[in-house]
Amino acid sequence: MERCIFCDIAAKQAPASWVYDDDRVFAIMDIVQPNPYKVLIIPKAHRKDLYALTPEEASAVFQAAVKLGRTIKRVSGCDGLNLLQSNGPSAGQTVFHFHLHLFPRFSGDGIQFHWNHHAPPKEKLDEMAEGLKAALDCGCQNA
Fold first, then answer.
1. How many domains does the chain contain in total?
2. CB–CB of 102/72 below 8 Å?
């Protein structure tokens, strides 16, 4: 297996600016700071992406996100906060160990996220919703 920087950080074999640590997840300052106080939350177990997380790990990540998000807002004075997470190269994932970005936002920071907005007809939305519900009902969520 290729070396994983987040596994090395979790094992304290690589440097990082630690923010949070519990039994399942840890949080570090992102080495890229488009805005101050940008943090990454990372499960300690190597999980390639969202699809590999256990329910317990997912819960731990988002419990930490709430706790850290509130703290970032209080300490930084940010106006808002984006949660960003990518799965697979086509989604922009470059480090293949699940991680959640907590991205503080400030009025006038000039940072924009863009995509083409397309509103399909209600019938198409209903069709997609039914397909997802059927997949959930069959218990075949694990990809």
1. 1
2. yes
Does the residue 71 lie in any domain?
yes
Is residue 97 annotated as a catalytic residue, yes or no? no
In a domain, 87, yes or no: yes
- Indicate which residue of 97, 99, 114, 117 is catalytic: 99
Q: For 73-132, how does the pLDDT look when each residue is reduced to its tens digit (9 = 90+)?
A: 999 999 999 999 999 999 999 999 999 999 999 999 999 888 888 899 999 999 999 999
Give the domain extent around 48. Answer: 5-137
Residue-wise DSSP of 48-62: -SGGG--HHHHHHHH
In a domain, 142, yes or no: no
Q: In this structure, which amino acid lies at residue 125?
A: L
Whole-model pTM above 0.85?
yes
